[in-house]
Amino acid sequence: xxxxxxxxxxDRCSNLRRDSEWLRVAFHDPAARILCYCNxxxxxxxxxxxxxxxMLNGSLNTExxxxxxxxxxxxxxxxVFAVDSQRTEDFQSGELSAGGVPTxxxxxxxxxxxxxxxxxxYGRALLLWHARHPFCSLCGSPSAVAEGGHLRRCTxxxxxxxxxxxxxxxVIMLVVSGNHCLLGRQASWPENLYSTLAGFVEGGxxxxxxxxxxxxxEAGIEVGEVVYHSSQPWPFPSSLMIGFTGFATxxxxxxxxxxxxxxxxxxxxxxxxxxKERTLRLPRPVSIARRMVEDWIAQDG
Amino acid sequence: xxxxxxxxxxDRCSNLRRDSEWLRVAFHDPAARILCYCNxxxxxxxxxxxxxxxMLNGSLNTExxxxxxxxxxxxxxxxVFAVDSQRTEDFQSGELSAGGVPTxxxxxxxxxxxxxxxxxxYGRALLLWHARHPFCSLCGSPSAVAEGGHLRRCTxxxxxxxxxxxxxxxVIMLVVSGNHCLLGRQASWPENLYSTLAGFVEGGxxxxxxxxxxxxxEAGIEVGEVVYHSSQPWPFPSSLMIGFTGFATxxxxxxxxxxxxxxxxxxxxxxxxxxKERTLRLPRPVSIARRMVEDWIAQDG
Lengths: 301, 301
Fold this sequence. Notes:
The structure is a homodimer. By secondary structure, chain A is an alpha+beta fold.
């Protein structure tokens, strides 16, 4: 089963996007569609009951500067782009009156079709990367969009460094010990919410190294065997969640760093009972964390 | 079995490295050790027969500017740092005469102890990231090292953006079909060298999405089921290789992009025979690619 936000149906056309003339023609194709975002949040119509992403039609694209458009790929023969604006008004006047309102993407993932959610996640990941990287990290000069937004190149002739979009791998792990799993919570989270442990992979680590280090740091538990579960793009802003089951070799919890305010072992029965009693909340259904917990409960020993 | 370059034995002390006073004391601990690099390549003594990383002793650390030292962690009670210089001479005069010569890291991985290789890989990943990120990508001002080298912070009071080290996830996959596996080669590679397909994960992709896209782009083969193998940090300069077996659902190879100059299906027997005849070379023994091919051969149908 696919995780939410993965499995976008379009062809990314990685080769074609290097051809600026092909891109220009695609952008003005009457069949082209442009996903609209405001500060990384998609413009949505239909409210939270029936959210649908706003797509500008290719015939309106003369109003949009192509250098601001990120090429996502081709779906059903139609080139698909994404554009971000920091001002909602850009999409609310004249030809570009797209309708819709910028909507917290996290809140609507579960309410959209899987392919629409995956497409919006992809556009969001790239747009947020551009927003954070207008300058060259090597020399400090402005950098410019290239290859349909899949590259930024330094504008200084003395530098011309190339910078590719950044994706931050993070491990997320359900640590288990017999009929119990380890869940933790951060002080800032909503009441009663517990989730799997997680953390970013550091330089010079395998994924398995990162799983063991994070669990040791956050909960003082030693992990032996580590088994892959699945993965999920998580553009908040640029994570790639890589899920594992970790088999604990110790039981005593020590909160070593300040990451968690609590961590505890939960049996399958306790999770079921406490969720029913509303004294325990699990992470949102679209998250890989939730799926890992549910898959483990379904295994039943 | 661990992949080469993974499983470093030290404690990264992620919490302590945020404490600059603790770091200063650790740096001047007589037991402290400093790994020395020149442009990301480790200083090595003992030649390629018996390579050993050069480590400066903590008592010499007054000669080194602490702001240039990356804190790696604590091993056997000794704080471990890494320092890079663009000039070999920095380590060849006066107190700092460390001996050794900058050595292509890739060439000596197989010749070192596993923990020494993993430690050098970790230091290299961080040092190369710093070398590529002296400026803030958000505003173009200089950024400064913080948290023992695990963070850079913009020096502009109006910005103060924080930038974390970057790790680029890449998928690497052995695509199989019955008794055959798919190997490819790039035009620039040494004669007869074939390896598994690989490529960087893009924004908005799960790992499984990336495996299927890369194989389709590079060889025109459709992949169905995707099964995790293992992972390996690969600091050339900042990759994390994530290995999968991909089960092909088609057989006809088409080189869709310009990445590969050839790709072909190889049976287990053909690999064994051609390696013996020296008409086929597999990737270097320290690579996850080699391990994936060897594991598949060992499964034997």
